Structures are given as C-alpha cells and as structure tokens.
Amino acid sequence: MIIGIDIGSTTTKAVSIENERITRKIKTKAVDAVTSATGALGKLLLENDIRIAEIERIMTTGVGATQIKGDLFDIQTRKVDEMTAIGIGGMYLAGKDNIVIMNIGTGSAIIEAKKDKISHIGGSGVGGGAILGLAKKMLSTSNFNDIMALAERGDIKQVDLLLEDIMDANLGFLNKEATASNFGKMLDSAKNEDVALGILNMVYQVIGMLSVFAAQSRGLNSVVVTGNGSANPIGKRILKAITDIYKISFEYPEDAVYTTAIGAGLG
Prior knowledge:
Elements: E1 2-7, E2 12-18, E3 21-28, H1 33-48, E4 57-61, E5 77-79, H2 82-94, E6 98-104, E7 108-114, E8 117-124, H3 128-138, H4 144-152, E9 161-162, H5 163-166, E10 179-181, H6 192-217, E11 222-226, H7 233-246, E12 249-251, H8 259-266
Helix pairs in contact: 2-8, 3-6, 4-6, 6-7
C-alpha cells in the first residue's frame, strides 16, 4: 500500500493506493505541515483499520511537503513536485494522457500533462483564497458555506456591468448578457447576496478564461478541472457559460478534489 499526502495551505488530503487503485481518501485541517501530515495519516489509518506495517511508502506533495524532514513513523517517505503530482493525478482520473488541467485551490495552477512530459503553463493568484479574503472584507464573513448560501440568492446584474448596459446589440460572438466589467456597476441597491455572487463570478470567470487560452494554445477543446474549487456548484455554472461562448468544455473527474494526493501516491 502507498499513501499519498497533499499538504496544502488550508487543507491536507490523503489517499491510500493499492495496485494503482484508490482505496481510501480523507481530508483534514491543521495549523502546521507536520501536524497536518501526521494527522491526515493517523486519521486515514484509524478510520479504515489500516496497520502501519501494511504501508510500503508515503509520498508527500504540496506547499507543506518541504517541512517534512526524514521519514514519517519510520516509513520510507518521499516528496513529489506539486505540479508533477497534479499532472499525474489529472491524467489518471481523466483517463487521458494529453490534457490541460486547471487546478483550483487557494490559487489556481494550469498544467499541461502528457504521457512523457508534465509542464507548468502558469496560473493565477485568483482562487479560493481570493473568495474568502474578499468576502471577509466585503461581507464580514470568511465562512465558505455562508458565502455560497448568499451567492445562491444573488443577482449579478446588481454588481457587474454587462454588455447590455452599454450596447444595444451583441458584440461579435458575445451576447448582451456577457460581462463587460466585474463589479463595474455596483448599484446602491446591491445586497450582500449580490456581492457574494459577484465575487464568485469574478474568480471563476478569470479561471475560466485562463483555461480557455491555455487549451486553445495547445490545440485542445477541453480542460480537466481539479482541486477543491472543482466541486463548487456555482463555479461550475459560471464555467458552463464560458463553454457556451468559447466551445471549450470543462471536465470534472470523480475524486478531482484529491487529484494532487493521488498524483503524489502514483508518482
């Protein structure tokens, strides 16, 4: 059995892999990398009745992996480059060996993954961290569930400037409901619900457009979405609107949230 652990800036994920199959997975949070890694490993073992003797090796990745010195619990422990782990995990989950991956975490990273090469194309500081930070200042909450609940009731026309606000006709391939400027309207009547939706709309539109440009530059018509942000239902709706315009589809593999941990374990 191999254990893959992704030590992120906010969440740590761990998976167990047997015969290249994902058999168990967990998520946890902690204040530092060592506590996160050992806590995630301990939780995985205890909740699934796994004995330490069953573990062949532990593979770590993520921003906190560099803080893990030596072996964990006398089990051979190695580090895997995070971008490589995303690429390996993305190909495994998508069942393809020529893909562009948009990994949405605290920030966002774009990876080109091929059977013989994994490349970090680029990315953005816009991601889950931007959602929480902006909401804390603008909505006085950094509780993700509260932000989502507000956004579900929001009206984007209260905060975003749309093409229909400045033009009487479509602009090229863009229809009148396309965004001209995120937060470019911000009516006095805008409520917290509208602002919450505006934050999500801005973040996922940036992520979506970066994905489109990356896919087009590689001659592909789809992007594999992974990371914590891949499970956001409002984000998925925003990306679907981008698909309708640019004809670049977004794919969400099962267990996409655990992509990096899976890639570490398989690396």
